[in-house]
Amino acid sequence: MRLLRTLFFLPPTTVIVILITRLFYLCHAEILLPLILIVSIGISYYLSITVTLTTTLSRFVWFLLFLTPLIFFILLASLSDARNIGLDGSLAAKVQQLQTVAKDYFQRTGNSYESFCDSSALANTTLSANDLLWKDKNKCFGPILKLFIHREDTPNIPVLNCHDSKTSYAVEMYLPNWKLYQCIDGTGVSIRSKQSIGATTSCPSEY
Fold it and tell me: How far is Cα 116 from Cα 95, in angstroms, rounded to an integer?
């Protein structure tokens, strides 16, 4: 009888535990789901001992049981490990957008790329990329944990590597999940490569 009562309480209890977990953490972790199950079983066993099922309470629990499969799969799906999806693509796009900026800069400065790396466009791209990295780093934190995280406590990480000369330039950004460099240069090249530009003003010729 105790086992049946525990199983009776287990599905709605699991949903509630997952919901509470989402207030603190949003992404998938290997230890998280077994921990949720252990806690849910423990709470369900405790409820089976201490709770007396009245008619009203029993109906309410049955109603929760009816909704549990739908709620459970929705909440479980939200505990995904998709935190890296889109980050590298967004970073790469920001680098590629600089090609148009570089062409405009070249024309405005009398056909020269000199000091392009010190321009406000590069500074703004760096700040924007840092912001993307910060958001990605903290994406898994739920609303309660985010209350204790302050943007100013996280130092900016220099993500752009840029070198220029009068006739050419090269800009690269490291894409942490793809483990590649997105590079553009003055010849119009846009490439993702395992090789860094180092201190040169041209992208690698090979992947």
Answer: 14
Return the exposure string of 32-53: e unless at least 16 CB atoms fall within 10 Å of the residue's CB, then b.
eeeebeeebbebbbebbeeeee
pLDDT for 21: 85
Contact 94, 128 (CB under 8 A): yes
* pLDDT at residue 82 in the model: 46
Average pLDDT over all residues of the chain? 81
Residues 100-110, mean pLDDT to the nearest whole number: 94
- Between CA 94 and CA 77 the distance in angstroms is 30
Instruction: Copy the structure tokens of residue 98.
Output: 């600089």
* 145/155 Cα distance (integer angstroms): 19
Tokens of 144: 């309660």
Provide the sign of the torsion angle of the four alpha carbons 155, 144, 72, 74, taken in this order.
Answer: negative
Q: Letter for the amino acid at 69?
A: P
The per-residue pLDDT for range 135-150, each reduced to its tens digit, is 777 777 888 887 877 6
Long-range contact pairs involving 32-35 (C-beta distance under 8 Å, separation at least 24): 32/79, 33/79
